Amino acid sequence: MAETYTKTVAEAREEAADLVLVERQGAHAVVTMNDPEKLNPLSAPLTLALHDALRELAGDESVRAIVLTGADPAFSAGGDLRLMRETAHPMVDGDGGAPQAWRWIRMEFGGIARLITRSDKAFIAAVNGAAAGVGLAFALACDLILVSERARLVPAFGRIGLLPEVGTSWLLTRRLGYQRAFELFAGERHLSGAEAAEIGLANSMHEHDELLGAALEWCERIEALPWHVATMMKPLLRNAADMSWESAIAMEEFAEPGCFTTAAHRDAVAGLLART
Fold first, then answer.
1. What ranges do the domains of the chain cover?
2. How does pLDDT run across 95-116, given as a tens digit for each residue?
3. Topology of 3-224 in CATH?
4. Among 221, 229, 66, 84, which residue's Cα sits nearest to residue 139?
5. Is 27 exposed, middle or buried (0-12, 13-18, 19+ CB in 10 A)?
6. pTM of the entire predicted model
7. Which one of 97, 134, 193, 231 has the fewest beta carbons within 10 angstroms of its own beta carbon?
8. CA nearest 46: which of 33, 61, 64?
9. 131 in helix, strand or coil?
10. Residues 207-247: pLDDT tens digits?
């Protein structure tokens, strides 16, 4: 019963041109969701183009860091209402039922979130405007979140009769605690860039015109690290929050000896000793 999902993917691929822009700059890349007149909604064509672009970059050994942003004035308005009405509703009403929509949510929306969290690349969200619903979920999945003063973080699920999805329930309860996450979802609270930075949901806030530059500075910091450090550090930190202290320290103890074998470590130690 996968025909509906397969048909949706095939049709969407024919419309995906220029909806996602990729600019490679040495060892990093800037990926821009590019449907600004509609505030970069996650239509089927844009979602597939984004997934394809990120998948290609994640598999490129020369890429160390990826900036995810949207064409002004928004980061992403989230799930496309037309996609819900014209694709999701017919999917669940058809013979395949809810599993048809589940397949899209898991393979495409969830697939992008999993790619961001599981890849060994560093992902930096540059939130330049509204980040709503699934668009917010993609930003929250990144390793660093930078916001401009024009940013608006909008959970947005409840007002259209949906529940938190694409990992937002897990991410927000761990960052904010249960009560504050409940407040955001139930109260449909919109956070400004300043508020997001103040409560620790964003790493930092920047002037709008300086946001991308700040994200690129982070790329340079990551690229300046020995390649194995960021690559090994990401899965360690991603998993540590759900481990016991004993499990976390054991994982660190197994990982650290491998670093001693690298030329980067030995050269750095020799360089520091030479200064003493």
1. 3-224, 227-275
2. 666 777 777 788 899 999 999 9
3. 2-enoyl-CoA Hydratase; Chain A, domain 1 (3.90.226)
4. 66
5. middle
6. 0.90
7. 97
8. 33
9. strand
10. 999 999 999 999 999 999 999 998 999 999 998 888 899 99
